[in-house]
Amino acid sequence: MIYLNLLFSFFQIGLLSFGGGYAALPLIEQELIHDQGWITNQQFIDVLTLSEMTPGPIAINAATFSGNQIAGILGGAVATVGVTLPSVIIVQLLAYFYFKYKNIEMVQGIIQGLRPAVVALIASAGLTIFLTAMFGHSDWPIDLTELNYVSVIFFAIAIFFLRKFKASPIHVIILTGILGGIVYSIG
Q1: How does residue 86 score in pLDDT terms, banded at 50, 70 and 90?
Q2: Within a domain: 134
Q3: Is 139 helix (H, G, I), strand (E, B) or coil?
Q4: Is residue 123 part of a domain?
Q5: Which of 73, 99, 103, 169 yields a CA-CA distance of 20 to 30 A from 178?
Q6: To 5 degrees, how large is the angle CA 120–CA 16–CA 126?
Q7: Helix and strand totals (H; E) in the chain
């Protein structure tokens, strides 16, 4: 039964995550943490961290890691199929209809209307990840005494290298991973 639940949950996520993998993150969070109670907020952040570190689309990686955590290797495979199947179906249909009707004003209006909602989904996911990384949770209100100063420093280092030097995200991930290993092993 868990496999069918995973398939259905991730099919829904795949079906509704317009805007790509980052837009799927609040849907994954809602479904896995709040609706199903399969993982904790911290486990979700760990899944996101691993999903970012591995090659491939973040939503597919997150589905694979989450499914694996929830129901083992088969769970990872089922969640991955669930999250990708809607895209396969929808992209085939959209490609057909878009190329047939792309010059119709209403089609252009729909695309324009979806853009702000997609940006909001991505911003919401980013805020959840940021708050959890900095405070250990994303619940309101935020208590500044819970601020993780090491996370703030790593965030500042990452932003500095990404924005000032246009550093490769891979290099930044490796750098902060090494620093985190050193800092947290020292205690």
Answers
A1: very high
A2: no
A3: coil
A4: no
A5: 73
A6: 35
A7: 7, 0
Is the confidence at residue 187, as pLDDT, over 80? no
User: Residue 156 and residue 135: Cα distance in Å, rounded?
Assistant: 15
Examine residue 137 and state whether it is found in any structural domain, yes or no: no
For residue 84, what are the CA distances in angstroms to 20, 45, 64, 66, 110? Answer: 11, 21, 11, 14, 23
Total domain count for the chain? 1
Give the whole-angstrom CA distance, residue 177 versus residue 130. 17
The answer to the question of residue 168 being in a domain is no
**What pLDDT is recorded for position 125?**
84
- What's the confidence (pLDDT) of residue 144? 94
Write out the residue range of the structural domain in which residue 50 sits. 2-103
Length of the chain: 187
Packing angle, helices 149-164 and 105-135, rounded to 10:
140
Q: Are 125 and 25 in contact (CB under 8 A)?
A: yes
- Total-model pTM: 0.60
CB count within 10 Å of CB 121 equals 21
CA angle 81, 86, 89 (to 5 degrees): 115
